[in-house]
Specification:
This protein is α+β, with helices and mostly antiparallel strands. It has two domains: about 1-215, no CATH class; about 225-370, Reverse transcriptase/Diguanylate cyclase domain (Alpha-Beta Plaits, 2-Layer Sandwich), CATH 3.30.70.270. The protein contains 14 helices and five strands. Strands 2-3-1-4-5 form a five-stranded mixed beta sheet, with helices on both faces. The radius of gyration is 31 Å and the shape is elongated. Residues about 1-10 have low confidence and may be disordered.
Length: about 375
């Protein structure tokens, strides 16, 4: 029953028509995920298309008697191959322009197809229509793009194809033309239906993966990130700082005398205090800062692009905010803090050990205070 409710909730977030997320922020997250998948798989198909288009010059050699037209077709194939290679190489860096570049790539391919159709001396409409159908499959099922863009591009391609075919009188009768048009429309319909189904399935799976990721990286009580997520994020932050020489800082804090809260008010009230602390701290820290439950009543904050002085100022704000928070029926609570910044020789272990040592010093010096690292 629970799984069914989760599935229904997932589907509600997805457009029935396009199969895309209704929430633009969620769709943007999926876009980033799709970019990774495209980098691994679709780029190979794109390169193969460019090579295949170029190989078709071999049968064209027998179809075209005029060598001038053959040279034009060969140059078009070379240009399309170069565009395919550019697409192949650029996909990993298309953080915000994948769909745009896909549309441009498809428009260029459509124009090449139409020009070839106009120039081709081989007048078998069925052969050309087979090429059209293959093209429609590529638009809907191979290249990553918005669903509406796929509809527009395939409709434009099909309309142009039959306009040229009728203008050149390649279709012998109205019955013949009607049959070909209806068959092509049916192909577009089923391709669109399949693309929509794939869109929905991909996004349902994406939501499931997000849910699993949250479960594995989030503390169930406080909804802050857990220790596993802390290790992962800290390692990434250290790698980024080593590469770009950008400093970051960390804050560790611990509730003073928290055992007395559990002893005097019970563990359930202690849990409520921890949950409230987590939610309150999230209101104080910045959007790019992350809060982690390190263990028990200890929390760590990672602050990207932040020096120690700014981190200490934030620690003071968090300390003051918590001191003025009403935890009734629990009386006033205080916290001890440790603050440090990344050093070039730091690892995940050394950075965390330094934070832990600073927290120990804050406790040793009487609690309810902030201790910073002196370099």
């Amino acid at each position: 029953m629970k799984k069914m409710e989760t599935l229904i909730h997932s589907i509600k977030n997805i457009s029935y028509i396009t199969g895309e997320f209704k929430d633009s922020a969620l769709e943007q997250s999926f876009y980033s995920y799709l970019l990774q998948e495209t980098t691994r798989y679709s780029r190979r198909y794109i390169l193969a298309l460019g090579i295949l288009f170029q190989i078709f010059v071999l049968p064209d050699y027998t179809f075209f008697k005029e060598r001038g037209l053959l040279y034009v077709i060969f140059l078009m194939g070379v240009l399309f191959l170069l565009i395919s290679i550019l697409y192949y190489l650029r996909i990993p860096n298309m953080s915000s322009s994948l769909y745009l570049f896909s549309s441009i790539y498809e428009i260029v391919a459509i124009l090449f197809f139409i020009i070839l159709f106009l120039l081709c001396e081989h007048q078998d409409i069925v052969v050309h229509q087979q090429g059209l159908i293959v093209f429609i499959f590529v638009i809907f099922l191979i290249l990553p793009n918005r669903f509406i863009n796929k509809i527009i591009l395939s409709t434009f391609l099909t309309g142009s194809f039959f306009y040229i075919a009728i203008s050149k009188k390649l279709i012998s009768s109205y019955i013949h033309s009607g049959s070909l048009i209806i068959f092509t429309i049916v192909v577009i319909f089923f391709c669109a239906f399949s693309a929509r189904f794939i869109n929905r399935l991909q996004r349902i799976q994406f939501q499931d993966s997000l849910a699993l990721e949250r479960l594995s990286t989030t503390d169930t009580l406080t909804k802050a990130y857990n220790r596993r997520k802390y290790d992962q994020d800290l390692e990434k932050e250290i790698s980024r700082s080593q590469r770009y020489k950008i400093i970051f800082s960390g804050i560790i804090f611990d509730l003073d005398n928290f055992k007395e809260v559990n002893d005097n008010y019970g563990h359930l009230m202690g849990d409520e205090v921890l949950k409230k602390i987590s939610s309150q701290v999230k209101e104080v820290i910045r959007e790019n800062d992350e809060l982690y439950r390190w263990g028990g009543e200890e929390f760590i904050i990672i602050l990207p692009n932040t020096d120690q002085e700014s981190a200490t100022e934030l620690a003071n704000r968090v300390k003051s905010y918590l001191e003025n928070t009403d935890f009734s029926p629990v009386h006033r609570l205080t916290c001890s803090f440790g603050v440090t910044s990344w050093q070039e020789e730091d690892s995940v272990v050394s950075f965390t050990d330094r934070l832990d040592h600073l927290l120990y010093l804050a406790k040793k010096k009487g609690k309810d205070r902030i201790v910073t690292q002196e370099f």
